[in-house]
Amino acid sequence: VLVISVISRDPAGFKGPALLQNILESGLRFGEMDIFHRHESMAGNGEVLFSMANGVKPGTFDLDDFELFYTPAVSFFLGLPGPRHPKQAFDVMIAAARKLAHELNGELKDDQRSVMTAQTIEHYRQRIVEFERKKQLAGKR
Q1: For residue 30, how many other CB atoms are within 10 A of its CB?
Q2: Residue 75 pLDDT level (bands cut at 50, 70, 90)
Q3: Which of 2, 16, 48, 85 has its CA 20 to 30 A from that of 130?
Q4: What is the largest CA-CA distance in the chain?
């Protein structure tokens, strides 16, 4: 699983209405497990490319209470095996996380909660390449 967390720089956290608008603009839709998912199509159709959970346990969102909702962090994640084209899905996930961080004053963190650098992103891409290589080798046996 590749994880990108977006941590709010504001002590009040990400406010529900602004968070919801931002992620809907990135094509995420509320769905299974009470979290948000980005499907192949912006309309919410096709396979799930990646998902976004609340950074606070249990990780879910309550849409009925979104006006008053706030959270200090959210986590985007992409599972392998997962989408048919994991490299493209990862690029879409990075773009959504960057957009949220940029527009809502957040900071990107990796799965260790360290600052996300270009090097970290490249490392994640290498993990995808390695996963696909192993999958192809397994398929040839």
Answers
A1: 16
A2: very high
A3: 48
A4: 54
